């Protein structure tokens, strides 16, 4: 058998099928190692293991799911609890940020996340596209990245603020674009720079210098009730033009919306997704939900970063997301991961469950929902469910999430593109050592099967610290 046709099977006893939103028994998945894709999914007739071969992977007794998709991440950011976003953008070297991102990618993969929808480098230009390509070449392990490079924002909006020192040079954290011609050109620039997805700041908070939320020397004696509200950055026409140009370029659009009011603008423009929505100052939630449903717009609520960065909004966010889900809004699970620790991504799903959304719907939002948020077939791949031709992204949990509310934290097995990165809870193959030529073995056989499961762990992963609450800017 030539190497290009080598296949193996992954046998399961409990498998979550997100298309059916059901846990199925005794399913096996056949994987083609050469293409990294699934070539068959079938039900075994009984629990007999005698058909299992030594090339197969036995995941019976574990709970098997498609690899998770985090629909809102920042691979170059680490927890704002460690260093604020502004400090990371301003003070960290490109090398430090890249080394950190490399570690984040490994941790994400080992946590069951085989795809990241990465929404902006935060002042590192299009380095995310370069990291994506490194992962795709197998130079370093990590989730499949779909990247935004720089986000679009109107003049003076995002970020780092410098109105008090207007001559100060600061790193550029967005692609500044104004007017319909301006946003059209910016979409073209982003796509040219390697973006898989367009991110646009539909609104942002611009009064942090005026009314900082701090005590001490820069305390404001009599601040307004809303110190730093999220204010629209674009007209309806500008957003519609952004979407129009992105459609021509065949890339999805993610719109940062702090306020429900702005999400209505974005939904009417036909964006693929709205991100966040932490506030509803103008009582527009019902209208927003209606527009999201009508325009088939995905909501990525980023509850995990609300919990970590803006806990005062969390209860409202949870109730709003539940209401939206009940009304038929399409949800995708994305934590704004990076503002809190990569590796704790499943916190988003836990919060969605806490909000009252059924487990099966949450798992679907973190798999099929993620694929749709990446643009669906526009992204060039299929993943997030088990079917012939899909990427062989397969993970397993050590315990059953129907019984154990912390099961999502217990990822015991990870396969991406048919390659195993974690087995029995132990990381595998994260470092590639060059091999001396084995002349004897070469002479003996050029067709010996490489055992998938015999690789030894080559490095131990540090365990991320728990999420801590702090104040900071959201991205
Ligand atoms: Zn973000």
Secondary structure elements and pairings:
Blueprint: E1 7-11, E2 14-17, E3 22-25, E4 27-32, E5 37-43, E6 57-58, E7 63-66, E8 68-73, H1 85-91, H2 94-110, E9 113-118, H3 127-136, E10 144-147, E11 151-153, E12 174-176, H4 179-193, E13 198-201, E14 203-205, E15 230-232, H5 236-249, E16 253-259, H6 260-269, E17 273-279, H7 285-294, E18 298-300, H8 303-309, H9 314-326, E19 330-331, H10 347-354, H11 359-365, H12 368-373, E20 394-397, E21 411-416, E22 419-423, E23 426-427, H13 439-444
Parallel strand pairs: 1-6, 2-7, 8-9, 9-10, 11-12, 13-16, 16-17, 17-18, 18-19
Antiparallel strand pairs: 1-4, 2-3, 4-5, 7-20, 14-15, 20-21, 21-22, 22-23
Bound molecules: zinc ion (ZN).
Description:
With 475 residues, the chain is an alpha/beta fold. 27% of the residues lie in helices and 21% in strands. The site of zinc ion has 5 residues, from loops. Residues 451-461 have a biased composition (Polar residues). Residues 439-450 have a biased composition (Acidic residues). It comes from Rhypophila decipiens. InterPro entries: Amidohydro-rel (IPR006680), Metal-dep_hydrolase_composite (IPR011059), Metal_Hydrolase (IPR032466), Metallo-dep_Hydrolase (IPR051781), OTAase-like (IPR057744).
């Amino acid at each position: 058998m030539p190497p290009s046709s080598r296949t193996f099977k992954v046998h399961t006893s409990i498998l979550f099928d997100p298309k059916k939103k059901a846990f199925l028994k005794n399913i096996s998945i056949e994987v083609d190692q050469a293409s990294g894709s699934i070539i068959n999914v079938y039900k075994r007739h009984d629990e007999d293991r005698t058909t299992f071969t030594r090339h197969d992977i036995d995941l019976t007794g574990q709970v098997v799911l498609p690899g998770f998709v985090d629909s809102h991440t920042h691979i170059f950011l680490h927890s704002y609890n460690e260093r604020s976003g502004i400090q990371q953008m301003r003070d960290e070297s490109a090398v430090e940020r890249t080394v950190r991102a490399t570690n984040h990618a490994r941790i994400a993969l080992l946590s069951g996340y085989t795809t990241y929808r990465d929404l902006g480098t935060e002042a590192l230009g299009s380095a995310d596209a370069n990291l994506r390509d490194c992962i795709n070449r197998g130079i370093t392990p990590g989730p499949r990245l779909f990247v935004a490079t720089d986000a679009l924002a109107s003049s003076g909006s995002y970020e780092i603020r410098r109105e008090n020192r207007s001559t100060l040079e600061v790193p550029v954290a967005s692609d500044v674009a104004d007017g319909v011609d301006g946003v059209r050109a910016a979409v073209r620039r982003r796509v040219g720079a390697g973006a898989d997805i367009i991110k646009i700041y539909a609104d942002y908070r611009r009064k942090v210098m005026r009314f900082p939320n701090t005590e001490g020397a820069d305390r404001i004696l009599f601040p307004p009730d809303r110190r730093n509200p999220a204010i629209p950055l674009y007209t309806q026409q500008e957003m519609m033009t952004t979407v129009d140009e992105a459609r021509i370029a065949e890339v999805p659009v993610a719109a940062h919306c702090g306020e429900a009011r702005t999400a209505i603008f974005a939904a009417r423009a036909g964006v693929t997704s709205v991100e966040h929505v932490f506030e509803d100052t103008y009582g527009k939630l019902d209208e927003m939900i209606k527009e999201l449903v009508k325009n088939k717009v995905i909501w990525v609520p980023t509850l995990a970063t609300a919990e970590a960065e803006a806990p005062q909004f969390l209860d409202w966010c949870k109730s709003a997301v539940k209401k939206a889900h009940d009304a038929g809004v399409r949800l995708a699970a994305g934590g704004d991961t990076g503002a809190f620790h990569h590796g704790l991504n499943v916190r988003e799903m836990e919060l969605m469950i806490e909000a009252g959304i059924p487990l099966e719907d949450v798992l679907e939002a973190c798999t099929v929902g993620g694929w749709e948020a990446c643009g669906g077939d526009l992204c060039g791949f299929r993943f997030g469910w088990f079917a012939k031709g899909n990427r062989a992204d397969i993970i397993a949990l050590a315990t059953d999430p129907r019984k154990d509310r912390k099961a999502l934290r217990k990822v015991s097995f990870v396969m991406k593109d048919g390659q195993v990165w974690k087995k029995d809870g132990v990381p595998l193959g994260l470092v590639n050592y060059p091999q001396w030529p084995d002349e004897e073995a070469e002479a003996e056989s050029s067709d010996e099967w490489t055992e998938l499961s015999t690789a030894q762990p080559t490095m131990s992963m540090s365990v991320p610290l728990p999420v801590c609450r702090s104040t900071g800017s959201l991205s």
